[in-house]
Amino acid sequence: MGETNWAGNQTFTAERIVRPRDLGEVRETVARAVAVKALGSRHCFNDIADCPGGVLIDLSALGTEVVVDPESATVTVPAAARYGDVAVQVHAAGFALANLASLPHCTVAGTVATATHGSGRRNQSLASAVSGLELVTADGEVKTYSRHDGVVVGLGALGVVTRLTLDLVPAFDLRQDVFDGLPWESVYEHFDEIQDAGYSVSLFTNWARDEVDQVWVKGPGRPGADFFGAKAADGPRHPAHAAGIPADNCTRQLGVAGPWHERIPHFRLDFTPSIGNELQTEYFVPVRHAVAAMEALRAIGDRLAPVLLTSEIRTVAGDELWLSPFHGGDRVALHFTWLPDEDAVRALLPVMEDRLAPFDVRPHWGKLFHRAADYPKLGDFRALATELDPDGKFRGPFVRRHVFGEG
Ligand SMILES: Cc1cc2nc3c(=O)[nH]c(=O)nc-3n(C[C@H](O)[C@H](O)[C@H](O)COP(=O)(O)OP(=O)(O)OC[C@H]3O[C@@H](n4cnc5c(N)ncnc54)[C@H](O)[C@@H]3O)c2cc1C
């Protein structure tokens, strides 16, 4: 078929991609297929979305209608809607989504299926905003679920999500201030205060330099000019500024206030996000282990830096979603934007995971990792997947390996 993911490091081995025009066609395709899986905007870096020899379902022809309900403060969206497009319509109705990822380009269904997150001490993952969803299961039936049913972070393994309802909050403005050169000592001593300094805070580093390269603070107020020893940037920055990448595709900085959806993502919807020619990995550890985990990575900083474009440190609030890496408590997110050298990255992953093993580490479902984590609700998820899909038509190699422990 020759189709690849966004990063170009995965070539799908499905037999074909189909674009059903209505719910009936989705149901028929699913019911007939032996192996089938929904495909979002292809922004994952591993084989989670692949379906060898089977059918990939692209839902982008299923409509674009976004319905805001001011009474319940919710929005109902088609599965393939992109966050950036939903955000514009939600904002026009006077509402906001509580958080967004660094890029607004991904589909809502694909994003929540992997528990994609943004940043912010008090902000849960984007999956936590899902109050309900509609799912086409293996036999072609349409079922509806609430956030309490274990289906939201579904990894595409439970069926095809066709519609989702998301919680909203009142619209708000944010400013974005960037600081250069945060001493590591400040990070270690004041980690909680730094993470509390804005609605969303991100640190960027390559783990090998003496200081953290940049801090991005997105909040309602102006942070002090001296941010725990870091200095206000004298111009717009790209997260990989230290690698010489210009800030053209980044959202507005330098303290200019603007609507939430034009400040929370790092990258603008009308540009390629991040760098484009890259790979990504991300690990999550409980916030109480933040400093120890950062020290463990700095100890191998000279091995990480040659393969890195940049690395981002954020905090994500805990939730109760079954396969969410944030299940059970707040976690610090340690993200890596790699050069596109997959062999070098794959050689590093077990080393990193060994270093982070003492800290109850869990990897991002949608990025490159070596070993999956154990989850308290993994057994329940397996039972639900087996009940909804007894023949395993939605499973694919990723889910077989990392959820069912096969092969
Ligand atoms: C440049 C860049 C920046 C990123 N920034 C962040 C970030 O800030 N935070 C973060 O957490 N992640 C981030 N990611 C990762 C990204 O958010 C996830 O990979 C996300 O899952 C991608 O969504 P997608 O629509 O592309 O899904 P895909 O990659 O197409 O699919 C992902 C999974 O979702 C399933 N799926 C898709 N649609 C459906 C559906 N309708 N029904 C059922 N299952 C479905 C697929 O089967 C698959 O299992 C980033 C990725 C890139 C490339």
UniProtKB/TrEMBL annotation:
Q: Does the keyword Oxidoreductase apply?
A: yes
Give the Gene3D superfamilies listed for this entry: 3.30.465.10, 3.30.70.2520, 3.30.70.2530, Uridine Diphospho-n-acetylenolpyruvylglucosamine Reductase, domain 2, Vanillyl-alcohol Oxidase, Chain A, domain 4
Matching entries from InterPro entries are given as: ALO_C, FAD-bd_PCMH, FAD-bd_PCMH-like_sf, FAD-bd_PCMH_sub1, FAD-bd_PCMH_sub2, FAD_lactone_oxidase-like, Oxid_FAD_bind_N, Vanillyl_alc_oxidase_C-sub2
What range(s) does the FAD-binding PCMH-type domain occupy?
A: 10-171
Question: What EC number(s) does the entry state?
Answer: 1.1.3.41
Record's GO cellular component terms: membrane
Class in the EC hierarchy, top level: oxidoreductase
**Record keywords:** Oxidoreductase
GO MF: D-arabinono-1,4-lactone oxidase activity; FAD binding; L-gulono-1,4-lactone dehydrogenase activity; xylitol oxidase activity
Any coiled-coil regions, as ranges? none
Name of the protein in question: Putative xylitol oxidase
